[in-house]
Amino acid sequence: MAKKQVDEILFGAAYYDEYLTPKGLDRVDTDMKMMRAAGMNLIRIAESTWSTCEPQPGVFDFSHVDRALDAAERAGIKVIVGTPTYAVPTWLVKMHPDVLAVTPNGPGKYGARQIMDIVNPAYKFYGERVIRKLVAHVAERGNVIGFQVDNETKYYDSVSEDMQALFIKSLRTRFHDDLNALNATFGLDYWSNRINAWEDFPDLTGSINESLRAAFDHFRRSQVAEFLAWQAGIVREYARDDQFVTHNFDFDWAPGWSYGVQPALDHFESAAAVDIAGTDIYHPTEDALTGKEIAFGGDMMRSVKDGQNYIVLETEAQGQNGWLPYPGQLRLQAYSHLASGADGVEYWHWHSIHNSFETYWKGVLSHDMEPNPTYEEAGVFGREIQRIGGELLHLRKHNKVAMMVSNDSLSALEWFHLESGFPYGGTMRYNDIVRKMYDELFEMNVECDMVPVTASAEKLSQYSMVLTPALYSAPASTLEVLRAYVQGGGHLVSTLRSFVTDENVTVWTDRAPHSLTDVFGMTYNQFTRPQNVPVKFGSEGSEALADIPAENAQALIELLVPAGANAAGAEAAGANVTGTSTFGSPTQVLAAYDHYAWKGYAAITRHAFGSGDAEYIGTVLSDAALKSVLREAVENAGIEDDVTALGNTVRVRRGTNAAGKSVTYFLNYSAEPVSFSSPVAGRMVLPAAGNGTEAAEVTSGAPITAGAQLSIAPWNLQIVIGK
Predict the structure, then answer these.
(1) Is 337 within 8 Å of 294 (Cβ atoms)?
(2) Does 477 lie in the same domain as 431?
(3) The whole model's pTM is what?
(4) Most buried among 43, 373, 596, 664, using CB within 10 Å?
């Protein structure tokens, strides 16, 4: 049986003697000594250097791997070995040019990493050989604690003949060779896209049918899951029972850092291949450090293994230009990962490389390989973890809120832009809606788990509130689960562009939202891009929103028609809604469009159904207004407490450690000191003073009582362990 959790907090860096160290320098023992001095106990090796491990086909050289393993063993440092398949060697491309992925931009060219077709037979043949040789070579080394399969794997937008042929085979199986069923399901009669013979199946690159395109995206994501499971299966033939298999899952990179649901991989599906989830989380620092990216990535990684702890296999130390951390930030970031449930933090790289593409993606050490403030601050964290790490290990969360995320909805809304309904004319993406909701919850100290659209009714019943941001595409079974969730007492909060299509991206033919009109107590059949359309907040029974200033709707407005006899409430919000309820209880209008043409329509509604209620936000709001709306929703769900009340002051992350004691992180992501009354009692495990850049010993935690004043310096934190 493989290990499912590590034995201690892991802290270290990726280390590649093959290219980190300039030729002629012998640094390996010096580097290990510096790592140990900084409290580091882990390196990751090998996965970047296939061409060094196998310089010619069938010729293997693991001397660099052995060199790193030997030095780490002498220093008492643990090692994760990566399979070297994410960057192909030149000889492989010369022998088999088809290993390079063909994308909509044309045939691939050699040079960058992650340019291969993961289903190509030649790639997989040679990939399997190098995996077997490497893992067999290192598996019995005592300091090798685990293996990372591949690196940030995706389908790399492959539209190769192999990928398309496999997709067509999957369709033939799915539709039992019935082309009539395929054409009807995907609506291919439109614009003569009908396929009347399997041998006539067109190249998908130019398809204008999003149902077919989305099915291809879904298939390609499934190939990533199969690819990782294939690699993990090979590794497990050699791995010991006390070793684990992991992978460094990443996220969407649209704004230039880790952000939102990954378009080219399903985290939940792919995580089944690994024993411990790993992740790469990169984010801005300096004035732009908020903690949101760290928290989002951590919440996703913890959720994909049903609450199990994960490892941050890559994050920045100095990073790219503009990300050099201010004093205190590096330590704050490291603890932030632990606060989300990480059991390890590892930097990319140990020191900055001296040539090639990532010359200025700077590591812990700079190009002179000397100690610097980043290294010194990493040491502060490392030495503190040596002392207190056991109390922070295996943090378990008990969150009351879940967010349902969907790769299929992401794909669909990449084509049907929110503002325009076409693959052009809009800028707002699925992940923008996801992150808007997540960010405001984070700022209110409302922690949340992530759940897939396949989540069961039993799973959802664990949460007081479930959010579905832009859940555009979902099967009828998901909607039935959400119905049961509300009926059983749950609080559902959904946004515009939810429940629009089935899993085949076919728009439902009944009243929107499909099969849930009685749950939400409203319907709509028209929507438009707003032009100076104010949203007016507050109505009878929702005074908590009355203080929100009116503001213009953004991106899109769905013209919601609430049911019920509470027309007065609608009028108070600026809407002239009339009608008789057919849903058993009146629908509450929380906001309406204050516009002469759209004055009869609601913008936000809430409706009691069964023992719970369902809220629908029919437009895009500013961050400030959305925060107020979600704060009221949190209150309505009975989730607000002393911790959420601190949202304007400090970020709070909570859980229970391996010993069953409560652990509360207070994180100050600002350049100003903060003071507040502690909502918890216990003992503080970090220094009560200082800026986080200087070593300070706390032999026994200072006690603190609930209600006592707690002060935290800029870019600093405190941790309180309960009794």
Answers:
(1) yes
(2) yes
(3) 0.95
(4) 43
CATH of the domain at 662: 2.60.40.1180
What lies within 8 Å, CB to CB, of 25 at 6+ separation is none
Cα 595 from Cα 422, distance rounded (Å): 26
The residues, any chain, with a CB within 8 Å of residue 723's CB and separated by 6 or more, are 661, 681, 682
CB 627 within 8 A of CB 504: no
Q: Is the pLDDT of residue 578 over 80?
A: no
Query: Residue 149 is part of a domain; what is its CATH number?
Result: 3.20.20.80
Question: Are 604 and 677 members of one domain?
Answer: no
Specify whether 495 is located in the same domain as 584. yes
CB 396 within 8 A of CB 655: yes
- Give the amino acid at 650: V
Whether 226 is covered by a domain: the verdict is no
- Please determine, for residue 570, whether its predicted confidence score (pLDDT) is greater than 50: no
Phi-psi region of 89 (alpha: psi -120 to 50; beta: other; left: phi over 0): beta
Which positions ≥6 away from 86 have C-beta within 8 Å?
Answer: 47, 48, 113, 114, 150, 151, 152, 153
- Whether residue 395 is predicted with pLDDT greater than 80 in this model: the reply is yes
Question: Do residues 168 and 257 both lie within one domain?
Answer: no
pLDDT band, very low/low/confident/very high, at 571 (cuts 50, 70, 90): very low
Closest listed residue to residue 496, CA positions, set 461, 524, 536, 466 = 524
Does 482 map to a domain?
A: yes
Which of 254, 56, 272 is CA-nearest to residue 149? 272
Task: Indicate if 514 and 592 belong to the same structural domain.
Answer: yes
C-alpha dist (Å) from residue 604 to 20, 591, 625, 629: 55, 5, 12, 9
Together in a domain, 465 and 536: yes
- Rounded to whole angstroms, what are the CA distances from 61 to 50, 54, 72, 133, 149? 10, 6, 19, 10, 20
The structural domain count of the chain equals 4
Contact in structure between 101 and 160 (CB atoms under 8 Å): yes
Range of lowest pLDDT (48-57, 80-89, 479-488, 561-570): 561-570
Residue 260 covered by a domain: yes
DSSP code, position 718: E
Q: Which residues constitute the domain of residue 673?
A: 646-721
pLDDT band at residue 373 under the 50/70/90 scheme: very high
The confidence score (pLDDT) of residue 566 equals: 39
Query: Which of 286-295, 637-646, 710-719 shows the lowest per-residue confidence on average (mean pLDDT)?
Result: 637-646
Inter-CA distances, 712 with 86, 149, 163, Å: 43, 40, 54
d(CA 421, CA 101): 30
pLDDT at residue 696 in the model: 59
Boundary-marking domain end, from 392, 410, 442: 392
**In this structure, how many other beta carbons lie within 10 angstroms of the beta carbon of residue 585?**
15
CA distance 274 to 153: 13
- If asked whether residues 151 and 166 sit together in one domain, one would say no
